[in-house]
Design brief:
With 395 residues, the chain is of the alpha+beta class. Helix content is 47%, strand content 18%. The chain has ten helices and eleven strands.
Length: 395
């Protein structure tokens, strides 16, 4: 393109060209990830004012009401004072040089604001210092007007063809900068919303997973834990016994003649017996103990950190509580037989094996349970030397 500089030497032309190229380069390197749009525009205006011979830059954004509002402004004497705020001047479309630039979509050059009829002061500008010359450049994103860039100088007839042509380049870069920023913000919002939805979905999935895991460990009829939960928790109890010497007692409880209960009164009544016995057991154990429905009419309790003598007391208390339950059926009494095995740090299995696991402990307590049944039922039997022979016979 032809560049005309009346009275300017080659040196001036080269300096103007270098300044303009510097501004273009710096504008192209602006990061659209700025904190907000105002901060981004202020950086862009700083670049313009540092590289071009102008007194002040302002940007008027077109709001949703169709009014051009001064987003920010910067004077050459205030580049370092980024905290200074300007009154948010406003122009309607077609009002003043800025409004005409927005209305026509063309650059407006007011060479002498005191004599140019296009330059007008609205009520909000009465106390504003009158500039000498102004250039107002409409900024588009695609075909949509988004803002007007306004530059001014206190001297009339200050701006030349060089300024006009370079501002044609700047306005396109500012339009692209604003477009990129807004697209980035939209992308950030979408990512934030989708991330929030994903996080909520993960929370919901975890809650659902925890729910089903919990349900898979709960006996549907009685509400007690089942074998799956039992095996997870019993390993911890045994480990504490081995490591810290915390004694434990394992109780296996079986409802006496329960098959006859179902046969005589029906499975509905049998289920009611299981539910009420379960509630009794829940009332008799501590929070630290482990209580499960092992299967059918059989229940297992681990009394944690409990000596054998105390375990026997707890078992007897359970036996009496079950026996004392009142039923609607005349003369019906539900009794229970209980086998108990006690374990401490020094204890080993009857065969001398110190490789203790929960299945072996349940088997030992179960052996004591069968001894209780052999002795007439409705009894608590602790695994000891008497039951040891039966245990050995069963190996």
């Amino acid at each position: 393109m032809d560049i005309v500089h009346d009275g300017d030497g080659l040196e001036t032309v080269i300096i103007d060209l270098l300044n303009s190229l510097s501004a273009v380069k710096d504008l192209s390197e602006l990061n659209c990830q700025a904190g907000d749009e105002k901060e981004l525009i202020r950086h862009a205006l700083t670049i313009l004012i540092q590289n071009q011979d102008m007194e002040r830059c302002s940007l008027f954004l077109l709001n949703e009401q169709g009014v051009l509002v001064n987003l920010t402004g910067l004077s050459i004497n205030e580049q370092s004072n980024s905290s200074r705020e300007y009154a948010p001047l406003q122009f309607k479309i077609g009002e003043g040089v800025i409004g005409i630039a927005a209305e026509t979509g063309d650059l407006q050059h007011c060479q002498n604001c005191q004599k140019d009829e296009r330059f007008s002061l609205n009520d909000k500008q009465k106390n504003q210092e009158l500039p000498g010359s102004i250039i107002s450049v409409p900024i588009f994103v695609g075909k949509e007007l988004v803002a007007v860039l306004n530059i001014s100088h206190p001297q009339p007839y200050h701006f030349n063809d060089w300024h006009l042509r370079m501002l044609g380049i700047y306005k396109n870069m500012l339009g692209q900068l604003i477009s990129n920023y807004r697209l980035f913000q939209q992308m950030e919002d979408q990512i934030s919303k989708r991330t929030s939805k994903l996080e909520q979905a993960l929370v919901d999935i975890k809650a659902l997973k925890d729910h089903f895991e919990s349900m898979s460990m709960i006996d549907e009829l009685t509400g007690l834990y089942n074998r799956r939960y039992f095996y997870e928790q019993s390993d911890i109890a045994i480990a504490n016994t081995k490591r810290y010497g915390q004694a434990l007692c394992l109780l296996v409880l079986d409802l006496d003649h329960f098959k006859e209960v179902n046969d005589t009164y029906g499975h509905g009544f049998g289920d009611d017996v299981l539910v009420r016995v379960s509630k009794v057991l829940q009332q008799q154990v501590r929070e630290s103990d482990i209580l499960i429905r092992y299967g059918g009419e059989e229940f297992v309790v681990i009394f944690t950190n409990t000596s054998c003598s105390h375990g026997e007391v707890f078992a007897e208390r359970i036996r009496k509580a079950v026996e004392s339950l009142k039923w609607e059926k005349d003369n019906f009494i539900q009794t229970t037989s209980i086998g108990l095995y006690c374990l401490n740090k020094e204890c080993c299995l009857p065969d001398g094996n110190k490789d203790i696991n929960i299945d072996k402990l349940v088997h030992l307590a179960d052996t004591a349970l069968y001894s209780a049944k052999d002795q007439g039922r409705n009894k608590v039997v602790v695994f000891n030397n008497e039951t040891l022979e039966k245990y050995s016979e069963n190996q």
